TrEMBL record:
It comes from Chitinophaga sancti. The keyword Transmembrane applies. It holds the Pfam family POTRA. It comes from the Bacteria. GO terms for cellular component: outer membrane. This is Beta-barrel assembly machine subunit BamA. Residues 1-24 form the signal peptide. Keywords: Cell outer membrane, Membrane, Signal, Transmembrane. The keyword Transmembrane applies.
Length: 910
């Protein structure tokens, strides 16, 4: 056998008797020029001649189009080739090999006759991918990895493709903190498929790399602690060192445990940790996972922080990460701070609507203030309000633009000229609403402050968003507002988009209690009801809806012991033109206090005893324009009738059988500016109310007149009652993630007082305050204001040390004064309209008092604890709290007797 090494890129192999083959073995690159290619038989003294290609055939392929392969080779029937010695065959192999689809490429000369040559291109296709096999990888991670690699079934498997996938997988795990992840790849022939293979990735993730130390050099003016705080995604492990004779101490830095020397990118301890801490017992480490992407973001945050502190030339000179002694990651960063700058003179140009002095006041930056480019841009234009842009946009200047230009630098002082382009005032042209599949458009449109024909106002746009959210019919996270400016005619169209959410509620339970009889509850609340379509059967689904009205019906029974009926209807826009909220309600309840006892003990107890309550209410609320339009004034006329028979719950001599009537007028002044109802992030609620019965006793001309009979005194009840509630919602962090989650602080204060008009009558037990518990008490029966307190049962004494869970003591009639203070830290786990879930930590202080002489606003019961709230559209609010009453703590009993679970259903208790 003779081998040739031609000067061309590939050797041409010739075989005269059995055919000549030019081939390239399986490689990912073109064979080198000095690589021999086999020659089957000697050529003798054959001289190169020119031939015409008579025919070309392709063999060995299963999936690829043969005519396309011939075209890719560059060889065509009728072409002239030189054989042997021509370079057309080498070029053809190069072209086919470059497709990276084949494990072997060979060209045969099958026949030579009369100046013509017959060729055969023999190809061996690479195997195709049948499936991925992952080892050491979670199923959820597999889907992400496959998506990132771009590999797909049926794809030709090449070595470069596999190595590329290995690199992507390593990067994927490195970003998750597994910096030392090992990835191996192999192939497994699939016997069930022709020329198919399975690619097997074996991943050993190892432990997550954690940051042991962050070393920063070059920071002369800003300390390490402040800079590290800005690195939210890259945190050092927290070490707690325990000594046998000392309290735990928190070392501030590694330097507290010995002398270290380090140059950039390298740190060497002079002694081991055991030498530095001879009393070392163990160390606790907090989570400090290293993430490449977060680290890259944190480096930018460090420089951004420098810029906000006046160091506008600050740069990160270099940084490095390296393996620590503990197997974690050490981070070293070198910064160059540069000079600290200050604002100089700020002048205005182009402003005609507002004076320089007013704009300077809104900007709030004075000459000599620390230079902060970010703050300057925010004061000029911000979505949070209080900016110069907001001042202009609230008066229609939608096309407003402000360009701050540096006009002079004097040492460390920078002068600015703010060039303003006010543009024309934009008039609202069209307002479009989309996404309201259930709610009628007029219900949304009447809440909008952006009306066609009026000047554009950013404040009105934001307020419209709030009003739509507070309807409760739409997902507050999905409300969209998109102004579409038309510069040509100076107008703007506004597109609102909403997403309907389920908000009707159903309460259903049933049972059978033997002697007691049927027990259960059936309640339904339609929060988007339509009364005008009540006779239109086509709109029933299951009842007519879409007009924003509220209809609630509830029936509850506990057999012979208790039953109640409740009905209410609310029209938020009475007349349809103004926000006049009209409500009517009716309720009726019955209780037999001896139903259970008479069944157990027989006829020894009076089974004919009962307590009945019937009541109705009509109210009208009107939105005010002064002091601002967040205020509402509500008038309500209420009537309750109480019938008692052998009912001794109140422990009042002479008041166990009889009828009492309660006619009263209630005036409420309320202000609400919260951004949404279920999970408010900002705003406040205030409520001041006065409830008054007619002063019957004052109508008698005899000043010394006094009804002696309690029964007569309570025939028509008289009292005056005052309530004050205040709630604030304060965001403690910026919105996080796509769903805008954030920590929110709720602060609340509540006060109540009920009294007589004069001393001619005795204050009845109805309408008083009952404190403690979870608010699920029988307030509808006794007509009392239940003021819950987590961590405590219902209590009957003003003494914080008295917290018995037994029944009320003799002579208790309820409190006439109370005050309560609440502080809650809230965080949402889900803001989905199908299930809003948030957790909270709370502290509370409250107490009730029998009269003014006993009142002491600082004598309070205190508690603290944790809780969860679940808002499900079908069931309303569900929640539970675990509270510890500090005034219930007793020496030697621990928390067992001081802790209490409380629950809530359907509403947030007082």
């Amino acid at each position: 056998m003779k081998k040739l090494f031609p000067k061309s890129l590939l050797a041409i192999l010739l075989c005269c008797s059995a055919g000549i083959r030019v081939s390239a073995q399986e490689r990912d690159t073109i064979p080198a020029a000095d690589q021999p290619v086999g020659l089957n038989l000697p050529l003798g003294n054959a001289q190169p001649q020119q031939y015409e290609i008579a025919d070309i055939i392709v063999s060995g392929t299963q999936y690829l189009d043969k005519s396309l392969l011939i075209s890719l080779s560059g060889l065509n029937v009728g072409d002239k080739v030189v054989y042997p010695g021509g370079d057309q065959f080498a070029k053809a192999i190069q072209a086919l090999w470059g497709q990276r689809l084949f494990a072997n490429v060979a060209i045969y000369v099958n026949k030579i006759e009369d100046g013509q040559i017959w060729l055969e291109i023999e190809l061996q296709e690479r195997p195709r991918l049948n499936q991925f096999i992952f080892k050491g990888v979670k199923k959820s991670e597999q889907e992400e990895i496959i998506k990132k690699t771009g590999m797909r079934k049926g794809q030709v498997v090449t070595e470069s493709m596999e190595q590329n996938a290995v690199g992507i997988i390593r990067k994927y795990y490195s970003e998750k903190g597994f910096r030392n992840a090992e990835v191996n790849v192999g192939e497994r022939t699939d016997s069930g498929q022709t020329n198919a293979t399975n690619v097997v990735f074996t991943v050993v993730k190892g432990g997550k790399a954690k940051v042991d130390n962050i070393y920063i050099v070059g920071n002369q003016n800003i300390g390490d602690t402040k800079l590290k705080k800005k690195m939210k995604g890259t945190k050092e492990r927290t070490r707690l060192t325990i000594y046998p004779d000392y309290e735990p101490v928190w070392p501030d830095s590694a330097d507290d445990r010995g002398d270290y020397w380090h140059t950039f990118g390298f740190l060497q301890p002079s002694r081991t940790l055991e030498e530095l801490d001879p009393y070392f017992r163990f160390k606790l480490f907090s989570s400090a996972k290293f993430n490449e992407n977060k680290y890259a973001e944190d480096k930018e945050k460090v420089i951004s922080y420098y810029n906000t502190q006046g160091y506008r030339d600050a740069v990160l000179v270099r940084d490095t990460t390296y393996k620590s002694q503990n197997g974690g990651v050490n981070v070293s960063m070198e910064v160059m701070e540069g000079k600290k700058y200050y604002f100089g003179k700020i002048t205005w140009k182009g402003n005609s609507r507002y004076t320089d002095s007013l704009l300077a006041k809104v900007l709030g930056i004075k000459e000599g203030d620390t230079y902060n480019q970010e703050m300057l841009q925010k004061r000029l234009l911000s979505s949070e309000g209080g900016d110069v842009g907001g001042l202009y946009m609230d008066y229609g200047y939608l096309f407003f633009h402000a360009d701050p230009v540096e006009v002079g630098i004097h040492g460390d002082t920078i002068d600015y000229e703010i060039r303003i382009s006010e543009g024309p005032q934009a008039t609202i042209k069209e307002v479009r609403i989309a996404g309201n599949e259930k709610t009628n458009e007029h219900v949304i449109r009447r809440e909008l402050r952006t009306l066609p024909g009026e000047k554009f106002s950013r404040t009105d746009l934001i307020r419209s968003n709030r009003e739509i959210a507070n309807l409760g019919f739409f997902n507050p996270e999905k409300i969209g507002m998109n102004p579409v400016p038309n510069i040509q005619d100076g107008t703007v169209d506004i597109d609102y988009t909403v997403e309907e959410k389920a908000n009707d509620q159903l309460e259903l339970s049933a049972g059978w209690g033997g002697y007691i009889g049927l027990t259960g509850t059936l309640g339904v609340t339609f929060n988007n009801f339509s009364l005008r379509n009540i006779f239109n059967k086509q709109t029933w689904d299951p009842l007519p809806s879409g007009d924003g009205q509220k209809l609630s019906v509830r029936i509850s029974s506990n057999g012979k012991a208790y039953r109640s009926y409740n009905f209410s209807f609310t029209e938020p826009w009475l007349g349809g033109k103004k926000r006049n909220q009209f409500s009517v309600s009716f309720y009726n309840s019955y209780q037999n206090p001896n139903a259970y006892s008479s069944y157990i003990y027989g006829s020894t107890l009076n089974n004919s005893a009962f307590f009945k309550v019937m009541g109705a209410s009509v109210s009208l609320g009107k939105q005010l324009k002064w002091p601002d339009d967040y205020f509402t004034l509500i008038y309500a006329v209420n009537y309750q009738q109480y019938k008692l028979k052998n009912y001794n719950y109140f422990n009042i001599p002479g008041f166990s059988t009889g009828t009492s009537n309660n006619i009263n007028l209630k005036l409420t002044l309320a202000r609400s500016s919260v951004d949404q109802q279920i999970f408010p992030r900002s705003g406040s609620n205030f409520m001041l109310s006065g409830q008054f019965t007619p002063p019957y006793s004052m109508f008698h001309p005899d000043k010394d007149y006094k009804l002696e009979s309690i029964k007569d005194q309570f025939s028509f009840i008289e009292y005056q009652k005052y309530r004050f509630n205040a709630e604030w919602y304060v965001p403690l962090s910026k919105p996080m993630g796509s769903d805008n989650k954030m920590f929110v602080m709720k602060i609340a204060a509540k006060f109540g007082y009920i009294s007589r008009y004069n001393n001619r009558t005795t204050l009845s037990p109805f309408g008083r305050f009952e404190l403690g518990g979870d608010g699920l008490s029988n307030f509808a029966i006794y007509d009392r204001d239940i003021v819950s307190q987590r961590g405590y049962p219902v209590y009957y004494s003003s003494d914080p040390r008295s917290n018995s869970e037994n029944s009320q003591p003799s002579g208790y009639e309820g409190f006439t004064i109370f005050n309560k203070y609440v502080m809650e830290l809230r965080y949402p786990f889900s803001l989905s309209p199908s299930s809003t879930i948030f957790g909270l930590a709370f502290v509370e202080a409250a107490n009730g008092y029998r009269d003014v002489q006993e009142y002491n606003p600082f004598k309070l019961r205190r508690s603290a604890g944790l809780g969860m709230r679940f808002y499900l559209p079908m069931f309303g609010l569900l929640g539970f709290d675990y509270g510890i009453g500090f005034d219930r703590l007793q020496a030697g009993n621990g928390l067992k007797d001081a802790a209490k679970f409380t629950f809530m259903l359907g509403f947030e208790p007082e």
